[in-house]
Amino acid sequence: MRRFVLGLILALAVLALFAVSASAAGFVPAPGSPFSSLGQGPISLALPDLDRDGTPDVVVSNGLPPQSFGVLLSDGGGRLAPGSPVFPTLGATGELAPGDFNGDGSADVAVCGTIRVRVLLGDGAGGLRALSYGSAELGCGSLRTGDFDRNGTLDVVVADGTGPQLWILLNDGAGNLTPSATSPIPAGPSGLSVGDFNADGSLDVATNVRVFLGDGAGGLSAAPGSPLNTGDSAAPLGVDTADFNRDGRLDLAVLNNNSNLVSRYSSVAILLGDGNGGFRLSRGSPSYSTVCCAGDLAVGDFNGDGKTDVATVGHTDLRRPTESDDAVAVWLGNDRGGLREAPGSPYRSVGATGLAAADLNGDGKADLVTTNFYSDSVSVLLSDLKVHGRGARP
Q1: Which helix (DSSP H) or strand (DSSP E) does residue 19 occupy?
Q2: pLDDT digits over 60-83, tens only?
Q3: Whole-structure pTM over 0.90, yes or no?
């Protein structure tokens, strides 16, 4: 009997160890990952469905000469196949934002150039062709898309990298962009996110520390309560939008870089929206990471529990950060605006700089894609996270 009990205890211990190991796996590289970026020095990426097969593909912005846009088509299982790179004829490559800019049902991509925004039109079969520059001269730092004048066509908001201001670029329906009458608008730091924060049917804009309410005609005005309190003395670097407490109102996730000044860990603050354009820190925010010097932010449901999670890229070595210790940190959300770091986080991803999230293998969980600057490659990390525990209370 004693031998039976000991054997049963040992078996249960093995099963528990296996369960812990499985949950700690977190993210696993897709078969064949990393993949060539089809250029040199990849810095950012977007995940549009270029060939209309229902699976996100990858467009990479390669920043070193000769600057190019690499096209990688997904097979629906996380593998990427090279398409034809698109070489720009003017300006450098930069941050990307996907959308249908000419209304033909095929995904296109807007890109930050050196002094202008450019649109790459998709052919619906995986190819892209470049339009000539159509916007005003501006220093494009980051950009997002949305219908800011409510005419049914997709426009672009740009954070000017040469000065603290925003531009709304209105689309003529063919992908040609021109500044709105009220652009540029004085603003703060250049991270961007878009959503209807005051539920009036018009799109609004959030930067790292300020909120601007849209008038539905391409104009923006500063919302009361700015600058936002992110709960950290470090400079906010990035921002994204989701409903983190599932109350039907849009919230913000703000990435604070080099936080805590002593440890230099980065943090993420969840700011809960009140539905009128105001935001407040969720209980327990900000959440501190095990990585420093974070460079990008993405949101998605990484463990399939229906709640929005957060991922960032950064370094794990606080003393001498290098590309060899780059990693992705993931926080799991609950339905109250709280975050806890996922089992096994951070996950190693050498040279990671840019970050994006989407379901690349059709399992209902968001996966991660990173650009790897020093190895001229793109990594696909498939989520293996399981649903367990209720998470940290906000």
Answers
A1: helix 2-25
A2: 999 888 888 899 999 999 999 998
A3: no
